[in-house]
Write a structure and sequence with these properties.
It is built from 11 helices and 10 strands. The chain is an alpha/beta fold and 318 residues long. The longest helix has 21 residues, at 272-292. It binds flavin-adenine dinucleotide (FAD).
Length: 318
């Protein structure tokens, strides 16, 4: 079922969980074991992230350099289909611009359509870990808005080859990312917001936010979106802090800020065990306030370690 239809039918806050594909070489059983406690929380949706290829440079014995492409976390489409059909849970595979030509994107969309997967989160993608800047593939998309346009075209039966006879339209429900504290590359917040509106105008159906730790940032963001005519559901993204060193690592990696009371609690704690509990308590407080404010869905980032998220969900959703 489409995520927007689920939201329209529900009068309570729904649950969404985001997982990463395991490292290459692992089995579905290993993934299944890790997913079981999350599935017991009965999420309405499971998102499966997509990760661009990593490129590494190695020096050959003759001194020349070779570029090697590694795929460390493949399997987004297959894992999504397995969760959908083996576990009976609706899925949202992520699709990114990075590493794909438009033709490859079309093939991935055709596969997803045949698999009966109706929801997608469309993103530009981050640069791979060993690269500083995002570089699109030759013949690929530079911004998420272009990927949204490709999918909305396919939803209208417009494929890349305009000579197709009676092309079959797809019917994807499209999510995109939004940044309550601005995307790090945008020159200012208003420009970033305009770029977000362009994704909605191109056909996106809902927004999932980057993590934030101060709910006021989300509430202000929703108000600013509504002011410029963005009317689609805006789903808050929550990530619990799990270690003391994340006081620095999270702002550096995700370009988000941590509020004073959270930082003070983390500085005062004695070890990572305490920090883990503080992260859980903070996320529970955040989630309960968001739920009381009537958010349509809560989206939890698990980043491969779902233990704390399971505890938060049990406390918030009962
Ligand atoms: P875009 O919407 O393309 O925006 C990127 C930047 O370009 C912004 O600064 C924007 O303001 C600017 N911009 C947009 N359009 C234009 C234009 N026409 N002209 C000039 N500037 C423009 N990354 C992954 O690799 N895999 C994932 O699975 C993944 N999942 C995510 C899930 C969520 C909910 C979120 C919030 C992020 C996720 N990311 C993921 C990270 C995401 O890919 C990065 O944040 C990336 O840097 C930006 O992606 P985007 O789709 O927001 O890009």
């Amino acid at each position: 079922m489409k995520l927007t239809d689920l939201l329209a039918q529900s009068n309570k806050t729904l649950l969404s969980i985001e997982i990463m594909p395991p490292l290459v070489g692992q089995s579905f059983e290993q993934l299944f074991d890790r997913l079981t406690p999350l599935v017991e929380c009965q999420p309405a949706m499971i998102n499966v992230t997509y990760h661009q290829q990593e490129k590494v440079y190695r020096e050959r014995p003759d001194g020349t350099i070779e570029k090697i492409t590694l795929r460390k976390r493949p399997g987004t489409v297959g894992i999504s289909a397995a969760i959908r059909y083996k576990m009976g849970i609706e899925v949202v595979p992520h699709l990114i611009c990075g590493g794909f030509t438009r033709e490859e994107t079309e093939y991935a969309l055709v596969d997803l359509h045949y698999l009966g997967i109706q929801n997608l989160l469309l993103l530009r993608g981050d640069p791979p870990p060993n690269m500083k800047h995002f570089t699109p593939e030759k013949g690929g998309h530079k911004y998420a808005v272009d990927l949204v346009k490709q999918v909305t075209d396919m939803n209208r039966g417009i494929y890349l080859d305009d000579e197709l006879i009676e092309p079959n339209p797809t019917d994807f429900c499209i999510g995109v990312a939004g940044y309550p504290e601005k995307h790090y590359e945008a020159p200012n917040f208003n420009i970033d917001l305009r770029n977000l509106k362009a994704k909605i105008d191109a056909g996106a159906d809902y927004i999932v936010t980057q993590m934030f730790f101060d709910n006021q940032k989300y509430f202000d963001f929703v108000d600013q979106c509504r002011e410029i005519g963005i009317e689609v559901p805006i789903i808050p993204g929550i990530k619990p802090i799990s270690r003391r060193k994340q006081i620095k690592a999270i702002p550096k990696t995700f370009h988000v800020s941590l509020p004073d009371p959270l930082v003070e609690r983390l500085i005062a704690c004695e070890d990572d065990k305490q920090a883990y509990q503080i992260g859980i308590d903070w996320a529970i407080e955040q989630s309960k306030e968001l739920m009381e404010a009537g958010v349509p869905m809560l989206h939890y980032y698990t980043m491969g370690k779902p233990g704390n998220v399971v505890q938060i969900i049990r406390a918030v959703f009962g």
